[in-house]
Amino acid sequence: MVLKTFGWSFAVTALGLVAAVLFGGWTALGIVAILSVLEISLSFDNAVVNAGILKKMNAFWQKIFLTIGILIAVFGMRLVFPVVIVAISAKMGPIEAVNLALNDKEQYQQLVTDAHPAIAAFGGMFLLMIFLDYIFEDRDIKWLAWLERPLAKLGKVDMLSVCIALIVLLISAMTFAANAHQHGGAHVDKAETVLLSGIAGLITYMIVGGLSGYFEDKLEEEEEREHEAEEEAERSGKPRSAVQLAGKAAFFMFLYLEVLDASFSFDGVIGAFAITNDIVLMALGLGIGAMYVRSLTVYLVREGTLDDYVYLEHGAHYAIGALAMVLLVTIQYEINEFITGSIGVVLIGASFWSSVRRNRALAAAEGKAGSDEKTEVSSGV
């Protein structure tokens, strides 16, 4: 099972490390290995959240997620995205941006750093909306009940998560603008960039998340009439509408996953510049890490880990909220990547331990109930 799920990841690791040695020797090998570990540590919470979505999709779309999805993740977000950001921010052509990335790495890194406020605002708002919509939903299973119960009651207010997200964005933009004013207005335009990028992130979340939710609801409605649909399909000889609808639902859920992965990858891409400004090594290292994150997502789904450890998804969403706030804070202040990665690991670790304790308590309760039942039977005899 492990080899089947992680086989491609092992293969990509081997090829990536060989390519690193051929490209830059043993030093490059070490850099790629460090970047791979960085990506996995920063994106473990991404795997847990992805698993919660991917388990609703069939085996075909899980394969799509591991094939086409990984191409988008590796080449799109880890290689093309930094170049596109530089091209847009520096108002240059993509070919010129690629040439800059390969031949003037310091200038390329500086341009990516200058574009960080826009990246952080977009990703921060997208992730913040995921967190807010999760904590404001009333759930049967609650991890931090003392916090989640009142939040679930507040969640009954329409559009509350959007209002809070916009307030957070306004505060971020105003704070950045105030800081710019203190420095002679040199960065005034960046405040507007933060505001526009944050709104773009919010709109992206609402469009993609709304479409995936719409088709998912439609799919559930069709599944309730599955028997009737099968009989009708047999009589007419036409493809079942439920299959077509499932395809639409899966497509938009896949699209949602890709945007989610993109938002999670922002901190990894930015953090990678602290290690190297070589886009080839960056793509190799982050690509290997991204492959393991995707394999881990599928493993969690197939093993039913989220069903066994019910608080894992809670911990991952709290980690999302923390990462969203970290991204927004980094608009003005620099935060070490170790801290960013550690927050997610600690929250998910705590939720995992809470799940283990819950499972032990339930097992003990069931054992005690069974023992009492046997005692009653034996007393009756």
TrEMBL record:
InterPro entries: DUF475. The chain crosses the membrane at residues 6-35, 64-90, 118-136, 157-181, 193-215, 245-264, 270-294, 315-333, 339-356. Pfam families: DUF475. It comes from the Bacteria. The keyword S-adenosyl-L-methionine does not apply. The keyword Oxidoreductase does not apply. Keywords: Membrane, Transmembrane, Transmembrane helix. NCBIfam families: PRK14013.1-3, PRK14013.2-5. This is Integral membrane protein, YkoY family.
